[in-house]
């Protein structure tokens, strides 16, 4: 659109006369009212199609162009995002020529309702597949990651992936809008595979969800614990239920498989009468198994932390608790790691996690940086979570100091903390996604 003097108009929707739409589809038109004397806006829109597209870039992208029925006054009704586009429904300011000055500026009178300002959600591209958010996860239906996806995104469309890396790629290739993947468990510790993938891929952490893990012993109907010859599940699930399993089925051998829900599916598919699985109660419902024992985890404080990943980061805020995740490699020098951590301590920023992983590109370095020495040590990448938003000046100054002592620094995401209350004595019951897709924590 060609440059003119600063526009003083307002956005409005114009519905041409009904006779233009006789036996034709209805099309909603977005126009920008400006000074009627301007040579570039003689009819409320630009003189060319490119001008019109430029002035309506945001609003026209969210306008539905569909055949619609006529109103009672026999005029076609336009729509925006599936809603009526009348001035009252869209909360648009009516332009009264008696009370408006040049350029459409309101001069007198009180406007009862102001137009709703655009938010970051309005500026974000809407999913092409519909209103449901598609969430990728690793595993099969009935696993704990399904519950995590349902808690993070209620009524989402969950997309199962056979590997963690596939879930990352599903978001990068626009097959999914989000991914929900586990990063640590309160008993089993960090899930290193996903930390490595966070560094390899360019997705952003946009949220977190903490899910209590409630294990059940599942088997085909009619099976009794004393007749079991083996119990199959994810290795961490077997370890987390070791003492209870010894009491329930001391004769049963333990066998590790890829994930908990996959173990339940395997028993149902192969009709194994002498085998039980450790999985969720939802897995029992999906695969027609009985719950022989409920809540068999040895420690009730068994929680898995998941992160939500997206192609674009969220805008950090300071009006609610935020957490920021970073990864860095410390530079050569004495006490480099101490100096990095001091940048947060001096500003009273709490660290909630620090994790070290070997530096794949430079795994080992000589202490004296020469080929004549024999002493060596590992090179590490450090993952740190701290309780502050990147909109907080303290966090900005801390990272400015960190950058001075590191050879590499990357912000993985600044996102809202999961503040959901948790009762360890009760089993988790998040609403599962309508499509049965999910994965366990750490393929659990």
Structure commentary:
This protein is of the alpha+beta class and 444 residues long. It has three domains: 1-126, no CATH class; 142-207 and 305-416, Alpha-Beta Plaits (2-Layer Sandwich); 216-296, D-Maltodextrin-Binding Protein, domain 2 (3-Layer(aba) Sandwich). It has 13 helices and 21 strands. The chain has helices spanning 49-55, 57-61, 87-90, 120-123, 144-152, 164-172, 192-200, 235-240, 242-248, 260-270, 281-287, 336-345, 393-404, and strands at 11-14, 29-32, 79-80, 83-84, 134-138, 157-161, 178-185, 189-190, 204-212, 216-219, 230-233, 253-256, 275-279, 290-294, 303-310, 322-330, 351-358, 364-366, 376-378, 380-386, 406-416. The strands form six sheets. Strands 5, 6, 7, 8, 9 and 15 form a six-stranded mixed beta sheet that branches. A five-stranded mixed beta sheet has the order 12-11-13-10-14. Strands 17-20-16-21 form a four-stranded antiparallel beta sheet, with helices on both faces. A hairpin with a 3-residue loop joins strand 7 (178-185) and strand 8. Helix 12 packs antiparallel against helix 13. The two termini are 55 Å apart. The model is unreliable at 1-73, 75-112, 118-129 and 425-444 (pLDDT under 50).
Total helices: the number is 13
The Rg value, from CA coordinates, equals: 29 Å
Tally of strands: 21
Largest sheet: 6 strands, mixed
Mean pLDDT: 74
In the CATH hierarchy, the third-tier topology of the largest domain is known as Alpha-Beta Plaits
CATH class of the largest domain: Alpha Beta
What is the H level of CATH, i.e. the homologous superfamily of the largest domain?
A: ACT domain
Output the structural class.
alpha+beta
Strand content: 25-35%
Helix amount, in percent? 10-25%
Shape annotation: elongated
Number of domains: 3
Instruction: Extract low-pLDDT stretches.
Output: 1-73, 75-112, 118-129, 425-444
Quaternary structure annotation? single chain
- Gap between N and C termini: 55 Å
CATH architecture of the largest domain: 2-Layer Sandwich
């Amino acid at each position: 659109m060609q440059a003119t003097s600063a526009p003083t108009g307002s956005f409005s929707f114009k519905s041409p006369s009904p006779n233009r739409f006789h036996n034709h589809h209805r099309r909603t038109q977005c126009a920008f009212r400006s000074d009627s004397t301007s040579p570039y806006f003689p009819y409320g829109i630009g003189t060319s199609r490119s001008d019109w597209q430029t002035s309506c870039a945001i609003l026209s992208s969210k306008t539905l162009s569909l055949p619609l029925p006529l109103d009672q006054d026999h005029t076609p009704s336009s729509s925006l995002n599936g809603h009526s586009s009348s001035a009252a429904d869209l909360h648009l300011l009516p332009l009264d020529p008696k009370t408006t000055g040049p350029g459409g500026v309101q001069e007198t009178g009180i406007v009862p309702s102001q137009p709703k300002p655009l938010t970051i959600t309005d500026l974000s591209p809407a999913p092409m597949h519909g209103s449901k958010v598609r969430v990728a996860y690793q595993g099969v239906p009935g696993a704990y990651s399904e519950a995590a996806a349902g808690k993070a995104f209620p009524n989402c469309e969950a997309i199962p992936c056979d590997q963690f890396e596939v879930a990352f790629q599903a978001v990068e290739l626009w097959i999914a809008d989000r991914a929900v993947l586990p990063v640590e468990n309160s008993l089993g510790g960090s899930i290193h595979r996903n930390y490595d993938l966070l560094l390899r891929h360019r997705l952003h952490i946009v949220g977190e969800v903490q899910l209590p893990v409630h294990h059940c012993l599942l088997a085909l109907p009619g099976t009794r614990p004393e007749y079991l010859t083996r119990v199959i599940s994810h290795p961490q699930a077997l370890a987390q239920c070791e003492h209870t399993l010894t009491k329930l089925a001391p004769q049963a051998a333990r066998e590790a498989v890829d994930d908990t829900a996959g173990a339940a599916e395997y028993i149902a598919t192969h009709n194994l009468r002498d085998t039980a699985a450790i999985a969720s109660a939802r897995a029992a419902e999906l695969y027609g198994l009985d719950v022989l024992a409920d809540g068999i985890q040895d420690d009730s404080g068994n929680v898995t932390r998941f992160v939500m990943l997206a192609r674009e980061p969220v805008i950090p805020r300071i009006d609610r608790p935020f957490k920021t995740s970073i990864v860095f490699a410390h530079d050569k020098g004495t006490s480099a790691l101490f100096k990095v951590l001091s940048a947060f301590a001096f500003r009273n920023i709490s660290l909630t996690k620090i994790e070290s992983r070997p530096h794949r590109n430079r795994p080992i370095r000589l202490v004296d940086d020469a080929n004549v020495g024999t002493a060596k040590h590992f090179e590490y990448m450090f993952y740190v979570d701290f309780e502050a938003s990147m909109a907080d000046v303290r966090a900005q100054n801390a990272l400015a100091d960190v950058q001075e002592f590191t050879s590499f620094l990357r912000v993985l995401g600044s996102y809202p903390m999961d503040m959901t209350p948790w009762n360890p004595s009760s089993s988790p019951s998040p609403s599962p996604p309508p499509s049965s897709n999910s994965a366990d924590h750490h393929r659990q």
